[in-house]
Task: structure prediction
Amino acid sequence: MSSQAEHPALMIPGPIEFDDAVLQSMGHFSQSHVGPPFCNTFGEALTMFRKLLQTTDPASQPFIVSGSGTLGWDFVAANLVEPGDHVLVLHTGYFADSFADCFETYGVKVTQLKAPIGDRPQLPEVEKALKENKYKIITVTHVDTSTGVLSEVQKLSELVHRVSPETLIVDDAVCAVGSEEICFDDWGLDVVLTASQKGIGCPPGLCLLMCSGRAMESFKNRKTPPSSYFASMKNWLPIMQNYEAKKPSYFATPPTQLINALHTTLTQILSRPLSERFAAHREASQRAKQAVASMGLKQLAEKPENQANGMTAIYLPNDLKAPEVLPNILKRGVIFAGGLHREIAPKYIRLGHMGVSVTDPKRRDVDKAIEALREGLGEVGYKIP
Result:
């Protein structure tokens, strides 16, 4: 049984429910951020992050920095491109717009390749765009939290390496790491950026990036200094290298309690084969999606190949709006998220199913969420087919 205070099951696509041991590790007594015990903990967390992304290339460089996933955009825009460079942003929802806005803040020229809501840009369209212009970077949102759309990152990477091999491939995997398989080396990715509070299962407050040797060479060869101070790889690179070598180092104080929690959750994740973890997420996802279909409801991501394993975005029926339904679900002890896509936000809701809610066989969070959705819709007069 959980030792946490009684609370509604948080079934949004992040932050997610956290394991007791992860939360308890946040209560670790205060430590020096340059003392040997913390250096060991941080160093092991960096190495475990490599294992989670399945990279063994010594040229790959992890970064774990205080901040949200949004900071990852700044890292990319401030270090891997320069003013006037061109980037291609593949658009599957809200977060592509935001990443594009971040690039433009740094004087980078952005082209967006947009798909209809619930879909993703098709590979022939991407190939055509890459042949028409030279891009320093292409970005893809692995799972867009606003739509639940899953991108075909491996095939996309193969395409980019074939058609435009000099273009760096940046995977915005905030809603994917920990719930979707990512093979950093085998897929030839250059950056994977994420945050702590979704599939990784750690409280919010950490930005995590993995950069390839090719990305780091691109950074070292830039003509101008990094255009951010806090998000500067120049400032953070020696810190990360020293910590992974378990040596004290300082640029800015790391959040020691969060690093302890991250160490705990990564240890848990890696204690069993990653293949089992991803299979558990696929099973829970199919259970949720089949239940949604059985209620006569549609997903934003209508095509099965576009559907994420860590979340489900659900259109509401009969012109219902999210504020009419979400309180009824909450009364049944479950929290869903409202819509986030600007064009259709009131028309849909989002269910998260990732992390401990699907990997702990003692929990029935997903089943409870499905029941709450069914009953919550019934309360506003929707008749299940």
